[in-house]
Design the sequence.
């Protein structure tokens, strides 16, 4: 879903190859951030929060929602992956009961912007066996 603007050339190694994609990330307020991510960056100044949903390219499967905290001044990022699972069914209505799980917050150096931070975080999730 990432496209290079028309008229700009891209070197083959300008964007790391990845098995995941996401639409443009959007900035979110601290009130929308998962509690574990907010706690992980508590006390940091100038942190901005972003979210995007992530899709596995080979299977076209939804993998979850990434939330990132970016501290540009410190050159650090911290991310979590939120996944939603069916925990059961409501006995009265038969509707599914959904539960949301978050990975532990993961901090890493990143001073190259939000898209690079999300790409790096997804690579770390893949190395950890969380992504296919």
Sequence:
């Amino acid at each position: 879903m990432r496209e290079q603007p028309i008229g700009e050339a891209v070197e083959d190694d300008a964007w790391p190859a990845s098995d995941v994609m996401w639409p443009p990330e959007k900035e979110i307020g601290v009130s929308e951030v998962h509690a574990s991510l907010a706690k992980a960056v508590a006390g940091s100044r100038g942190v901005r929060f972003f979210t995007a949903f992530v899709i596995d390219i080979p299977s076209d499967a939804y993998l979850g929602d990434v939330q990132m905290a970016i501290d540009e001044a410190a050159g650090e990022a911290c991310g979590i992956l939120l996944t939603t699972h069916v925990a059961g069914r409501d006995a009265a209505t038969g509707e599914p009961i959904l539960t949301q799980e978050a990975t532990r917050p993961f901090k890493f150096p990143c001073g190259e912007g939000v898209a690079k931070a999300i790409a790096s975080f997804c690579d770390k999730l893949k190395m950890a066996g969380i992504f296919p």
Observations:
- The two ends are 19 Å apart (CA to CA).
- The chain has two helices and seven strands.
- The CA atoms of residues 86 and 128 lie 23 Å apart.
